[in-house]
Amino acid sequence: MGSAKAKNSNSAARKARIEEMQRAERARERRTRILTIGASVVVVAGLIVGGVFVVKSQSDKDDTASDSKTSGHFVTGKDGVKTWKGTLGRTHVAKTVKYPTEPPVGGNHNQVWMNCNGDVYAKALNNMNAVHSLEHGAVWVTYTSKASKADVDALAAKVKKTPYTLMSPDDKQPAPIMLTAWGKQRTVTSASDPNVDKFFAEFVQGKQTPEPGAACTNGLSQ
Question: Which residues fall in a compositionally biased region of kind Low complexity (predicted)?
Fold first, then answer.
């Protein structure tokens, strides 16, 4: 009984923390939009007065952005979780990034994230978009064709009720079921493996998150 109460309490606390982060992120986005619009008006007015109008979009910058290489290696802890020791780039790029792991645990990525508000995808994802979701604090569940249907269905049900998670097939990965967060990864034996709950509890909006509270909606979806 005590264990159940503690689990419920921890779950409620985590939910409240995520909701507070989401409110802060929405407020930050509103302030950013207002500042951006104001700055744009001033810049455009100045350019028109000078007789010159230049448009330089963020996408143009991405096309020429240098790709800081991800370097390092995994270190496996006693709990079975692999932690990336080294550098994980965080630059937004338009060109294709080749990651040293599958699924990737971080690195340079596309400026648009995959929706990760409990989203379950039927097809493999573009790693560059999924990595952006990891940057926002999401846990990414992936599986191969070797995973049983029962496990896939059970994991999908868990993901659907958990904010800041997403799930997709990935036949390029080395194990049937894998869990990934920014800089963190582990293999689990099944949906009922207790390490699934442990990984979610620690890394959904966990301390490893580069951008806590950043949006997991209004991104890409299949």
Answer: 1-13
Report H helices in 71-181: 127-135, 149-160
- pTM confidence score: 0.75
pLDDT of residue 9: 63
What order of strands is seen across the sheet that includes strand 82-87?
Answer: 71-76, 82-87, 184-187, 177-181, 139-143, 165-169, 117-120
For the residues 129-141, what does the mean pLDDT come to? 98
Q: Which domain holds residue 134?
A: 63-203
Least confident of 16-30, 87-101, 184-198: 16-30
154 with 197, same domain: the answer is yes
pLDDT value of position 61:
41
H-run or E-run covering 140: strand 139-143
- Side-chain-facing half-sphere of 150: CA atoms under 13 Å: 3
Burial label, 4 (beta-carbon count in 10 A; 0-12, 13-18, 19+): exposed
